[in-house]
Amino acid sequence: MTKKQKKMLIRILISAGILILLNVISLPAPVSAVGYLLAYLTVGYDILRKAWKGILNRRPFDECFLMAVATLGAIGLAVWEKSGDYNEAVAVMLFYQIGELFQSYAVGKSRRSITELMDIRPDCANVETDGKLEQVDPDEVEIGTVIVVQPGEKVPIDGVVLEGSSSLNTAALTGESLPRDCGPGDEIMSGCINLTGVLKIRTVREFGESTVSKILELVENASSLKSRSEEFISRFARVYTPAVVYSALALALLPPLIRCLFLHLPGEWSVWLYRALTFLVISCPCALVISIPLSFFAGIGGSSREGILIKGSNYLEALSRVRTVVFDKTGTLTQGVFEVSGVHHSTMEEEKLLEYAAHVECASSHPISKSLQRAYRQEPDRGRVTDIREYGGEGITGTVDGHEVAAGNGKLMKRLGLHAPDCRSTGTIVHVAVDGAYAGHIVISDLKKENAGEAIRALKAAGVSRTVMLTGDSRKVAEAVAAELGIDEYRAELLPGDKVTEVERLLAEKQSKKECLAFVGDGINDAPVLTRADLGIAMGALGSDAAIEAADVVLMDDDPMKIAKGIRISRKCIRIVYENIVFALAVKLGCLILGALGIANMWAAIFADVGVMVIAVLNAIRALRVHRL
Amino acid sequence: MKKTYKIEVDCANCANLMEEAAGKVPGVAKAGVNFMTQKMSVEFEEGADPKRVMQDVLKACRKVEPDCEIEL
């Protein structure tokens, strides 16, 4: 509790104490009246002061002013009717203040717990100067400085490991609880916790550009981008208070006037005045105005803890309405790493064939060549290869150990006058010919992520009705992958530019405007598509600035299950938002009607104001708990 | 030019009112108040002096919420 809150609590306790005493002990009327006044002023003097200021500033709909009018009005009525019962007026003020106190406490508490969740900001960096360690503000560390990270410390700035090996806890960044190993030469991200060994790191970014700063900035700014429900509520709040105040005025004046003038009945002025004052107590829209942003803030905070960064409340809302998910195959459903998955029709030992292929391709940096070299498992000896010739889009020929070797696709084989058999396997096929004779082919495929199929099923379960896969790969590969993973549709053999057109076509096919189309990419080369879709989701985007910039939702690691999880989190959050809107409006409206009819008194009104707010805030905080979703 | 200021405000509706009031101050192109993070971001108009404008913003905000605080 802050000092301000403690002071308020003491005032509330004193006032409540006096109120209870007055009701237990019977005192002569003038004495108890003074007692009530004391209790009232103790708890409400600042409201009266603020109300006065509100009048000076010509702001008649200030909530303090309304509370002051309602309570002073109730006191006035009690004096007028000589009932001597000031309980109601004091209690209204008391409960109003309790509500305010609770609100500021709950909001402060949840703000802290969310910031704690995001507590990945490192306090200092250990810079080594002349063999001694010096602790400095990470902000002051320049690029290229060597810093030391002890076990148990957070990595303060992105960098490359120079010495030492350790395992890193990346949970705060990715939600992944399995530690990640690192050693010399590995690039590591700030925000990870060093678990076992001392690491010496050369920084590659400034603190402000480091992962940890980027993430914090993103999450902090996220709640500034307002969702439609928030805008609805702030527009509503602007109209609500004046509307209630004017109806209170009408309620105080019209019915008695009508009774007097037309029905020739007694005016019952005090009855209607009391009902009007009840209205004023309900006129504060705070329950709504506080609980909606709080729900979003909690939802965004909770999901970022799970490694899902949502860049704004509006995107959280869009995520909950996703019906179509479009994947870019490479890097999202597959690992984006090519591997040799088979050697077929080989006329020689498979190892030998791989050796020839790896050598002839040794000068190329194409991913396919890399995968051949990896499969060969040894460093190719470049000295054994001569006469390398590259045929663009076909393959490579060269001489290895005096044998003429050609490695490439069917077109290259045709050029050499050889017959290349079709392969039934899906993947990229590298045909190899040695000394002018066909020697077999190597199948290279992009490995699917283990849980890709499960991720698609989870999406379906979360209410996604259509999944589409876009790929530059051949139709055959696309068909096989789509069938295996259970993806509804695929578009194959696309050039990078085609992906935007394809997404635009899918956008046009949407059934209604409320549906959203999400595009999932790995953030490499697909920034235009990420921007074009209703919702761009970048995956495994840690360290890729362009993707973080272009995407609306950033998945910190490359686990496709996170997409469905994000959708479930957003659904929960939006449900809480609607619950709060409906609940608060229903109770307030109900109390207004009952109040106008004289059924609900000021006690009910206080519940409609403070009770609803307390319940709405408690409900909003539920949005933070999303781990088990 | 855009700047962010730390603020102190107790109720969410007041934060909305502050946002509205700050947006109407001459020299301010756009103002946003984030109640949850207790921050106010102000986009200034071309050629406006942020320090002078912020004094007016504070005054305007005090009018709608006497208890509010802006760290200038």
Give structural notes:
The complex is a heterodimer of chains A (629) and B (72). Chain A is of the alpha+beta class. Among the domains of chain A are: 125-220, Calcium-transporting ATPase, cytoplasmic transduction domain A, CATH 2.70.150.10; 306-334 and 449-571, HAD superfamily/HAD-like (Rossmann fold, 3-Layer(aba) Sandwich), CATH 3.40.50.1000; 336-447, 3-Layer(aba) Sandwich (Calcium-transporting ATPase, cytoplasmic domain N), CATH 3.40.1110. In chain A, the strands form four sheets. A seven-stranded mixed beta sheet of chain A has the order 10-22-21-20-11-18-19, with helices on both faces. In chain A, helix 3 (63-80) packs antiparallel against helix 4 (87-117), helix 4 packs parallel to helix 9 and helix 7 (228-261) runs antiparallel to helix 8 (269-282). Chain A is elongated. The two termini of chain A are 31 Å apart. Chain B has 72 residues and is an alpha+beta fold. Chain B has one domain (2-70): Alpha-Beta Plaits (2-Layer Sandwich), CATH 3.30.70. Chain B has two helices and four strands; from the N terminus they run E-H-E-E-H-E. Chain B has a four-stranded antiparallel beta sheet. In chain B, helix 1 crosses helix 2. The radius of gyration of chain B is 11 Å and the shape is globular. The mean pLDDT of chain B is 85. The A-B interface holds A 50, 53, 57, 59, 62-63, 100, 103-104, 107, 111, 114, 220, 223-224, 234, 237-238, 284-286, 289-290, 293-294, 297 and B 10-13, 16, 32, 34-39, 41, 63-64, 66-67.
